[in-house]
Specification:
The structure is a single chain. By secondary structure, the chain is α/β, with parallel strands linked by helices. The chain has eleven helices and 14 strands. It has a ten-stranded mixed sheet with strand order 7-1-2-6-3-5-4-8-9-10, with helices on both faces. A four-stranded parallel sheet has the order 11-14-12-13. Bound molecules: threonylcarbamoyladenylate and magnesium ion. The site of threonylcarbamoyladenylate has 28 residues, from strand 4 and strand 5.
């Protein structure tokens, strides 16, 4: 990882190196406020193909393109007045908009996986800086191998993808910690939520009627999903995960939330606090790190304390349900993952 070898004030040098790699069709792990992404020039066929190879991602699962504002978004997609309003309100930030692809825009075909739509986001942080430096969009899924937990630190990326990427930029832990909310603004003014995140239904409601399939009811193994963000099995730890656990079992890792009584000293329970004070945003930031810590600590299963299903708690519970499902299926099958 380059960042380990450079002095702390080396950001311009790192960004210049990242820019050079991306301009030549390479792939770079780049932090955003949500999770770390695995970025490539979205107009470069071979570069985009390299993302799918590095992740082991099924080719029918499309990528989000990252832009530096509404002007670039509207060059590669077609933004309706509603899409513009949402972009103005929440960008840069953790909201991806699924909009029609603009014909002739030059996006690599693999980005959209044959769909007539493209997901667009203006993120915060180094990803947006790089987009501006290159003056072209960066396609970037989360920088994890398909089916694994999304990375919220450079160390997570290095552990999961390591040599598969040309460079990993480090900007510290992601400030949100969960992947972006994905919405599809409809022509009739409805806002369809395809994936929950830090931008909640309540925050979207002033812009139009909000609807969505909030529960992960979508069945996997669909070769041409209409809303791939709903695919059920994601973010799988290697051991079984149980939700709403008040009393962890012996040998279980416990992901706790809020004040709780400490397991007695004679039990072998590894505990990771998502937020001792019961702060849901802190819990979102720490969720994937907590899953990683427990998953690599030799526990037989992971028990998660009840998380309130409000605000960003809804997105936390969404990811936990997917993790609970993903931990029970083998990654060898054709189940699509992110
Ligand atoms: O916060 C995020 O969104 C992060 C950072 C790196 O930006 N990215 C991310 O990408 O989570 P990924 O690929 O792990 O998840 C993107 C989701 C996938 O479920 C994909 O199927 C869906 O977005 N998606 C992409 N394009 C779509 C489209 N045109 N229509 C519906 N869903 C789409
Ligand atoms: Mg992902």
């Amino acid at each position: 990882m380059l960042t380990d070898a450079l002095p702390p004030n080396s950001r311009p040098a790192e960004l210049a190196r990242a820019r050079g790699i991306l301009a030549q069709g390479g792939i770079v792990a780049v932090p955003t406020e949500t999770v770390y992404g695995l970025a490539a020039d979205a107009t470069h066929d071979r570069a985009v193909a390299a993302i799918f190879t590095a992740k082991g991602r099924p080719s029918f699962n499309p990528l989000i393109i990252h832009v530096d504002g509404v002007a670039m978004a509207d060059t590669y997609g077609v933004l309706s007045p509603l899409a513009f309003a949402l972009a103005e309100a929440f960008w840069p930030g953790p909201l991806s908009l699924v909009v029609p692809v603009r014909k002739g825009s030059g996006l690599a075909a693999a980005v959209t996986a044959g769909l007539p739509t493209v997901a667009v986001r203006h993120p915060k942080g180094l990803m947006a800086d790089l987009v501006a430096m290159l003056n072209r969009p960066l396609a970037a899924p989360s920088a994890n191998r398909s089916g694994r937990i999304s990375p919220t630190t450079a160390a997570h990326v290095a552990r999961d993808l390591g040599d598969a990427v040309d460079l990993i930029l480090d900007d510290g832990p992601a400030s949100v910690g969960l992947e972006s909310t994905i919405v599809a603004p409809q022509d009739d003014g409805r806002i369809q939520i395809l994936r929950e995140g830090a931008i909640t239904a309540a925050m979207l409601a002033p812009f139009g009627p909000v609807e969505g399939r909030f529960a992960p009811t979508h069945v996997e193994n669909n070769a041409s999903p209409t809303s791939p963000g709903q695919l059920l099995a994601h973010y799988a730890p290697s051991v079984p995960l149980r939700m709403a656990v008040q009393e962890p079992m012996d040998g279980e890792g416990w992901l706790t939330f809020g004040p709780h009584k400490t397991p007695s000293a004679d039990t072998k329970i590894v505990t990771y606090h998502l937020s001792p004070t019961g702060d849901l945003e802190e819990a979102a930031r720490r969720l994937y790190a907590g899953l990683q810590v427990l998953d690599t600590s030799g526990v037989q299963s992971i028990g998660v304390a009840p998380i309130p299903d409000a605000g960003i708690g809804r997105a936390i519970n969404d990811r936990l349900r997917r993790a609970a499902h993903g931990s029970t299926v083998s990654t060898g099958q054709t189940t699509p993952y992110d």
